[in-house]
């Protein structure tokens, strides 16, 4: 039974229906009685019932009895406006006059009555037989409608309001999200009705937050992060990755008056910082790239970290095109091949040294020896070449073979200068081939250019390098796999750096999950990624260009990847992603263009454009999740670090 007797008390009766169609309902109400319904504003929910017998004549002043009403089905209405009184010659006016006679036995003054227009959102109904499900179903269209005489409208009681906003929400993994609120007044606090969210609607899905700054988007994201951690406290089957663009998830903000996520859940969070001054607890570390130990990714990383005008300059572009090997090698390879590969890395390390990148000799020695390199810093140049090079460049005999990083840099630098100054020296050739390959020659010209700024042009990337860190991507993937939460604090970074780390980690997560899918290793585990200020991260729509964010939109669900992204405007988001988004949390939008885009992408927001532009209360959101078929106006709870889990 959907409609209970207490939902049909005279105090909740609004009036009979004058006209109805599949989209709209026109109802007549007693003005004095309507004035008592303080909670009924534009956009408010009401419900319409159907009487079971044709002989029932609904009165303006009296609701139908419970036994006359079909209780397994109700129609959900949203209040639109109060239309003017119709002309005397219209069919609607004749219908009104008939209802007025039922009310008073005569033609009452029009001033005592009013018309109210509603939009029909759909219909709630029970499965047949009812035992199949305790959860009501919702249809987005009202289905077969009878004559208007058979319908009457009620204001919802708190019990009915709970049904209307929570009835179809998945029962598992619920959190208390906020309170039902139809307008910016404080009426909603008189009879508070809790609005719930199921984290199953968020997990593995795409969720958008739109609204102007300081109106509650980040607060809602915090509630979702907290909710996901609370519902997975035992299972640990959802790992989370947060790109903290403003530093508010990893750092406490006095303005918000609550401890940050990273400190409240310190045992489940790993924090990565760009700024050394923020490193504090045992679960925090620097977000750095080790160029010495990850040479195979170094050029791609430099291209992203350097300013665009530097990376695309004629001087730097050839360097970034070089291909470098990794530290590992196949033990079946010949000693000469292994030595040449190591020498190429040494030339790259020399480039880094000239550009001012710090090195850790002890760590690099240990790493190279662990990979099987017996003489880590010996380039292996033959003695005739060393004699010729040192004599030509320094006018001296060669020193002992290099044993330290500094010795290696000195010898590599001298050999590169020698190869540039004396390219035809026979000692630079072996079996007819030049000693250095094309990439090594490019690096030589980069260190000793005939025209150019010098290696120091790479210095903008040095703040993001550390010779004492492991592969942060591997570490983050491992944490997420174990159901942990990783917060990447990018609060001090510019847009270029934010985009680099977001794209790098997003691509790594996607490939990691895709690999698990191919190997059938998903095991019901999910990854949830959060993007603050998404307009800085997601590229504009680029037609047929496929990037990792487009793949999130189209394939993320298959690989158990969910994303939550927030920004001010729908128009700034990748259109592929926006079109595939299931959950929306919408605050204040000031532009009609933005509301039009939103209602175009998500039909459920059509007709709410004016409301979205008028309301500006912080935390006042219209929420539409996978469990909902229509937006629910909610005053979101304020994040305070306390669990919102429903027991």
Automatic annotation (TrEMBL):
<dbReference type="InterPro" id="IPR027417">
    <property type="entry name" value="P-loop_NTPase"/>
</dbReference>
<feature type="domain" description="Helicase HerA central">
    <location>
        <begin position="193"/>
        <end position="267"/>
    </location>
</feature>
<dbReference type="Pfam" id="PF01935">
    <property type="entry name" value="DUF87"/>
</dbReference>
<dbReference type="InterPro" id="IPR008571">
    <property type="entry name" value="HerA-like"/>
</dbReference>
<protein>
    <recommendedName>
        <fullName>Helicase HerA central domain-containing protein</fullName>
    </recommendedName>
</protein>
<dbReference type="InterPro" id="IPR002789">
    <property type="entry name" value="HerA_central"/>
</dbReference>
């Amino acid at each position: 039974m959907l409609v209970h007797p207490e939902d049909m008390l005279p105090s909740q009766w609004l009036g009979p229906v004058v006209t109805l169609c599949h989209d709209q309902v026109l109802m007549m109400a007693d003005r004095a009685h309507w004035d008592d319904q303080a909670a009924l504003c534009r956009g408010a929910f009401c419900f319409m019932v159907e009487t079971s017998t044709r002989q029932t004549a609904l009165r303006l002043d009296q609701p139908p009895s419970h036994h006359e009403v079909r209780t397994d089905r109700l129609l959900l209405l949203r209040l639109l406006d109060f239309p003017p009184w119709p002309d005397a010659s219209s069919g609607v006016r004749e219908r009104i006059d008939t209802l007025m006679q039922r009310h008073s036995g005569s033609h009452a003054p029009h001033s005592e009555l009013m018309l109210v227009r509603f939009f029909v959102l759909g219909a709630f109904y029970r499965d047949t037989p009812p035992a199949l499900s305790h959860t009501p179903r919702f249809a987005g269209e009202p289905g077969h409608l009878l004559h208007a005489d058979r319908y009457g409208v009620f204001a919802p009681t708190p019990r009915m309001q709970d049904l209307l906003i929570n009835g179809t929400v998945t029962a598992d993994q619920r959190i208390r999200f906020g309170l039902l609120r139809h307008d910016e007044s404080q009426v909603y606090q008189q009879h508070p009705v809790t609005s719930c969210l199921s984290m199953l609607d968020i997990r593995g899905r795409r969720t958008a937050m739109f609204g102007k700054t300081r109106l509650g988007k980040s607060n809602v994201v915090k509630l979702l992060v907290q909710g996901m951690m609370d519902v997975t406290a035992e299972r640990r089957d959802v790992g989370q990755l947060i790109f903290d663009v403003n530093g508010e998830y990893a750092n406490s903000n006095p303005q918000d008056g609550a401890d940050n996520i990273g400190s409240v859940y310190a045992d489940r969070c790993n924090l990565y910082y760009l700024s050394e001054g923020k490193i504090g607890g045992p679960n925090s570390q620097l977000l750095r790239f080790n160029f010495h130990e990850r040479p195979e990714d170094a050029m791609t990383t430099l291209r992203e970290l350097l300013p665009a005008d530097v990376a695309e300059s004629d001087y730097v572009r050839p360097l970034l095109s070089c291909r470098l090997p990794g530290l590992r090698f196949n033990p079946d390879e010949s000693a000469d091949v292994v030595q040449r590969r190591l020498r190429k890395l040494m030339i790259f390390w020399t480039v880094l040294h000239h550009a001012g990148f710090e090195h850790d000799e002890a760590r690099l020695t240990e790493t190279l020896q662990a990979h099987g390199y017996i003489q880590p810093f010996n380039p292996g140049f033959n003695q005739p070449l060393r004699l010729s090079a040192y004599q030509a460049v320094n006018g001296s005999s060669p020193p002992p073979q290099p044993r330290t990083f500094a010795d290696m840099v000195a010898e590599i630098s001298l050999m590169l200068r020698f190869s540039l100054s004396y390219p035809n020296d026979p000692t630079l050739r072996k079996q007819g081939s030049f000693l250095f390959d094309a990439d090594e020659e490019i690096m030589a010209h980069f260190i000793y250019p005939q025209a150019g700024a010098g290696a120091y042009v790479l210095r903008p990337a040095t703040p993001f390098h550390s010779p004492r860190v492991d592969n942060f991507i591997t570490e983050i993937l491992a944490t997420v796999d174990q159901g942990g939460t990783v917060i990447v604090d990018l609060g001090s970074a510019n847009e270029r750096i934010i985009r680099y780390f977001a794209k790098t980690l997003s691509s790594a997560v996607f490939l990691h999950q895709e690999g698990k899918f191919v190997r059938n290793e998903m095991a019901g585990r999910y990854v949830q990624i959060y993007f603050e200020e998404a307009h800085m991260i997601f590229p504009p729509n680029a037609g047929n260009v496929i990037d990792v964010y487009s793949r999130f939109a189209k394939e993320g669900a298959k690989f158990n990847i969910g994303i939550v992204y927030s920004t001010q405007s729908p128009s700034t988001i990748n259109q592929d992603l926006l079109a595939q988004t299931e959950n929306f949390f919408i605050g204040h939008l000031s532009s009609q263009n933005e509301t039009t885009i939103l209602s175009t992408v998500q039909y459920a927001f059509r007709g709410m454009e004016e409301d979205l532009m008028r309301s500006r209360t912080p935390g006042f959101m219209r929420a539409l999740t996978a469990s909902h078929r229509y937006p629910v106006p909610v005053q979101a709870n304020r994040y305070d670090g306390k669990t919102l889990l429903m027991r």
